[in-house]
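Workshop exercise sheet. Pairs work together: one partner reads the sequence aloud, the other fills in the structure field after running the prediction. Swap roles for the next sheet.
Pair: D.N. / O.F.
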Amino acid sequence: MFNQPLLFLILLLVIGLIAKNNSLLIAIVVLLILKLSGLETKSFTFIQSKGINWGVTVITIAVLAPIASGEIGFKDLTGAFKSPLAWVALISGMAVALLAKGGVSLLQNDPHITTALVLGTILSVSIFKGVAVGPLIGAGIAYTAMKIIDFFS
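Structure field:
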């Protein structure tokens, strides 16, 4: 009954509870339900291949929701370009999107990196009161760092 993947998920569940990381808790509960119900064979492969794209889509919907609701309009957009801080935000948004692009590639081609990224996120949330933005941007930063290391090696 208790195999290594199940014990690992339970350990992460305990860490998620201690860290009060709702996203991690929901993810683990869903995976535990799939695993314990016997639906893991096809569902895990499907989730692993499509999950990152689903997440990016949900985040994009959340970011665009203020535009759809009318909370942000063209007036806000044009006003933002008059502020130097808005230009910093624009460039930062572009940089993060480019980093995340590398992160998607890294997570799809090297999924074992996810474990270290999740552990790093959990440690940051629980010890330093960080905000869990998910492993995607962490993977992007790791991807960029790995490319820099490869360049100088």
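Discussion prompt: The chain is about 85% helix and 0% strand. What would you look at next?
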